[in-house]
């Protein structure tokens, strides 16, 4: 490679010290410290690790919508509660910051004409970074495969902006690339790098042809805002599956209170999600020898002795717990496990619907659970159209005994459906925007769960979903409009402008650096001639 022009010693030292752990001196420069092919390979590896880590950062942000499920899973396995999303974000921030700083240093060194001598410690850390991110992706694919579908949905919200960001980033790379191309004498490497760069840029310029989003529409085409279904109430504002949580959900304008029902040993239906009581009550303190038993093994008198609210303040399942008022904190400590009858009465007084699953469905006495639950519904006096029935077990019996109850199915419709489905309740990953639109046209109410992030709510809003189940009703309540909404013509104009500006910037970078390289060559030639003459005189 040709010797590049040097920057000032201070700049070179500031760049080389963190990247190469070297000090630039005249003596070292005379020894010919140059970038070798091995150094170029390590720079390419650094660039790949940066992109790999950047993609993981994107995934980490996307899976935050569902991370509370992961926290619950870990608690079920290890009996340890921790907000693992903080661990994820901190670790990801460290990795992306490290690789970003190294990449910026390398690009600055290239622009300043300094050698890319990556220190051995950085090489080890980069390999470890790549292995950690690869392990994270592998674990995601094995234990949480549905998040790949979440990422695909997220591209409908971020695709247009990722395109602009990618074009901008690759455009900026034109400067160090042009600098390298005009300095190296390796023709094969020049051609290879230029071909790769041009291929990537052409792909990015044409990427919007494959970008689709339900939010690319006219304002007058926007469907109505989806109704909100409180997932176990308002679990960010109150202990889940309590009357306080129900009332907080009502304050968030939810139309449906979603919960889970179990039946005690003496036949009283009550609200509880987990099969064990350890996560959301103080059962370990009150009944330590029975704490590991199934919730259905306790009678109603025992369940009423449990504190169902203090855990919420202690474990802080959501960051919003820290901002609760003193009154809410005091109210939370007074919460007890509510019976289904109490929940139905509260729903009737608040004029909201209640949707529930009856658990566990594999219990040997499940039919008696169904009978006890139906009896409570009929005794409560709640209008039956306000009750949404989710369990599949003994559904025909339920239809006969309480025909007014709305049947909600946890599956898509079948081709030869005997009775038309009026309500479906599915994970948000299980329905595409096209299916949502088709169900809407066929007057089928679609509820998707669990939707917490505004970006996801915006995509489903634009798709035309009827309602969403959410933990963050207080956040989605305040949304008066999707995060973004663009007419297709406007996006087309943005696409063309971005691509044109990028192309002209790249052209300008290559022409400018070519002109600068031509100016340097005469000066370098004169210096070489002078040094040759001095060397000849000294030899004489």
Automatic annotation (TrEMBL):
Transmembrane listed as a keyword: yes
Transmembrane segments: 40-64, 84-112, 124-142, 162-182, 191-211, 492-513
Cellular compartments per GO CC: plasma membrane
Localisation: Membrane
Domain GP-PDE span(s) in chain numbering: 226-480
Membrane topology reported for the UniProt record: Multi-pass membrane protein
A single GO molecular function term of this UniProt record: glycerophosphodiester phosphodiesterase activity
InterPro entries to which the protein is assigned, alphabetical: GP_PDE_dom, PLC-like_Pdiesterase_TIM-brl
GO biological process: lipid metabolic process
UniProt keywords, alphabetically: Glycoprotein, Hydrolase, Membrane, Transmembrane, Transmembrane helix
Presence of the UniProt keyword rRNA-binding in the record: no
Family of this protein: Belongs to the glycerophosphoryl diester phosphodiesterase family.
Matching PANTHER family: GLYCEROPHOSPHOINOSITOL INOSITOLPHOSPHODIESTERASE GDPD2, GLYCEROPHOSPHORYL DIESTER PHOSPHODIESTERASE
Protein name: GDPD2 inositolphosphodiesterase
Organism, scientific name: Cephalopterus ornatus (Amazonian umbrellabird)
The organism's taxonomic lineage, starting at the top: Eukaryota, Metazoa, Chordata, Craniata, Vertebrata
